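Subject: complex prediction, re-run

Hi both,

The earlier run crashed halfway through, so I resubmitted it with identical inputs.
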Amino acid sequence: MYKTLLVILDGLGDEYVKELNGTPLEYVKNEINNFNKLASEGITGMMYPIEPGVPPSSDTAHLTIFGYDMKKEYSGRGVFEALGAGLNLEEGQVALRANFGTVVERDRQLIVVDRRAGRISGRDADILARDLQKHLEEKGLPVKFIHTLEHRGVLVIKPEEGELSSKITDVDPHEVNTPIYASQPFENIGEEEKIKAIKTAEILNRVVKESYLFLKDHPVNAEREKRGELPANVVLTRGAGLITRYEPFKDRWGYKAAFVAAGPLYRGIAMALGMEPINVIGATGTPSTNLENKFKGVLEAFRRGYDFVFLHIKGTDNLSHSKKAREKAMFIKEIDKHLSILFEILDDTVIAITGDHTTSSVKGKHMGLPVPILIHAPGGRFDDNKFFDETDCINHGGLGFIHGRNIMPVLLDLSDRANELGIRTSPKPVFYIGAGGTPLKL
Amino acid sequence: MYKTLLVILDGLGDEYVKELNGTPLEYVKNEINNFNKLASEGITGMMYPIEPGVPPSSDTAHLTIFGYDMKKEYSGRGVFEALGAGLNLEEGQVALRANFGTVVERDRQLIVVDRRAGRISGRDADILARDLQKHLEEKGLPVKFIHTLEHRGVLVIKPEEGELSSKITDVDPHEVNTPIYASQPFENIGEEEKIKAIKTAEILNRVVKESYLFLKDHPVNAEREKRGELPANVVLTRGAGLITRYEPFKDRWGYKAAFVAAGPLYRGIAMALGMEPINVIGATGTPSTNLENKFKGVLEAFRRGYDFVFLHIKGTDNLSHSKKAREKAMFIKEIDKHLSILFEILDDTVIAITGDHTTSSVKGKHMGLPVPILIHAPGGRFDDNKFFDETDCINHGGLGFIHGRNIMPVLLDLSDRANELGIRTSPKPVFYIGAGGTPLKL
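This time it finished cleanly. Structure:
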């Protein structure tokens, strides 16, 4: 049995970018020798995170890749955001991603100017969040709002009279020059759920309204405007999630897992599945992250006895969203430089490298196109692919086109942990190899 | 957001044909420069309409490609045939495809000699159909029979005393030198359904018997036999369908859709989904169709404000069924010539070209093999495929092997209409982009 490392380069897949005459990966394909070494010695392919044409969010993609069924087990994004932000959560609470945004008032409506408040960050956001929380408490609203990274924050609604529901629509309209919409219950839900959802949406809508009424006149925003920056004068929520318990990764796959990730969402996902954090200095969840420390963190995790490590690198996705294709290519080259840190564990570790989805550097958004994947496994099968880019993984990939849900079984198989189908002695084979049940006595 | 054109070349996929040293597409692969241009600039792959090894009928394939679930939503083929024939239908009626065929009487049985009555068409078929309808009315049968194209027709059974059922077997034995079988209820249906099905089958069996008794002595058939042609002396039915309402294409996918198609079946499918017809002069649903007008009809549809057009070309399938591989290849070259008509819309339109299934020019029948697909999208991803044929789409296709059910999501994604999974503001995300719910009032 081998150890297993899953490296997710967020938003790795891309479209053809005219300026680069290829995708970012194709543009640097002759300069990423460490990726190419692993691709040459390993097996490659393409991976549809969910299904062809379905653009996943990062959390739905990660959950699927970790082997959880989106349709049956997804709690909503807010749960991960809140966990990743370090909040203590209790079952029955509803957590939401809550970004600072910029709106203008027109005809009693709030029109979205910027969904990220000019990518506000640091002290400004901290002060605004702290003061807003005080204001919401004074207004008697049963919520907790905190700032996390850049323009991002988390809102938790606590149940006071009766249960809450996460079956409510987003306040964030997901585009600009459009009014903010009131949250409302999903259509097609039962009567009982609807009553809970109406109550939850009411609290949420009051929070959003109060956030505008309070933030619009806050001195921090006055100063921002003086400096020519956009004010953070509203909180835009999305991805309501009811705090629920996921089956632990260990119970499902048998691995004792740790993670190296800085982005709160990814930390939250890993924590929801019971993975243990390995915190490294300089990890930021942005292109300026300390890659060396992150890769060294992986080695540290294995040294501490974990047999599965999830390494998440976010910068690739950020640069795609900003349509910085060339910078994305350069960041991939940077990652390639540090990839050699892993070479000392090649003999006893299965290493998979892929993305959670395609983020087009042309359109600046997630797409449902497939993502290159490489898996380097001791004694693992070889295809004749020599490069880690889209075209070569398409034309020479020995895995073919797989789905996100296939990744965990493939990793179990290549790390010598899978039992043959049909001869399983238990629905949880990994745990019970040689240890399940009672020995037969003569 | 881009407009979307879906071109279905019926029965496009094929097998290796010895005489051509390849499939028809492979035979002309160096002569179809317009197809190749779109393939080179776009993304390609192979498409299994249903599942590997499952040969679809044209209607089940089209429905699946349009994103409807065959297992749950299929009404039966007759519904489409009747709609496509321009019949006014009412809920509760049962419609069937009803072909003219040729039988001989032997031991009081009717043995099928030809399932298409020597591909009878035109005036002969019109007269026979008109006179047969009169005869059936005189016999008091609650049915409507009309001739459509070539040997094809449609039979509609109207409910008189109690409800009808479409759960009845085909009268058409689907092969020659075999007796016609009486229609009977499906096995494994409930008691209530069985009573309806018995009644429906009884009416149908009387119609088929009367069709023989009446047509065998009809003067048109006497003349046909004098000319050495096969008589159309029976009506063979199949694909019973209960008139039902499909969820409109617009509600499901958000597109305002039109279609350019001549074959009644395809017109019927499009109409059943609420697509609007764009009728063009010279469209026949055969290899002699006016291709130029059909492609120009597509441009006209977009000019009229539709944002989705379904263009259907039937000739490829007809020639495969007749085992005319070389003619199929030549017809594909003809299509290629007119494909350039579409080049003026490349900048703002996603164009997908594929078949609904493989029709083997060797075996003359539908097969469950995959079909080449190309998608040209503005800013769309490039693989390094330069040709639109089976082998190149297999070896270089960046979509890999997808399924018919994936096509609509892929088109939504590439036309910038898809919402990320997990951030949906409503169960029907496409409709609610920027439009969901009520503006939040201050």
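The first helix of chain B runs from residue 24 to 27.

- K.
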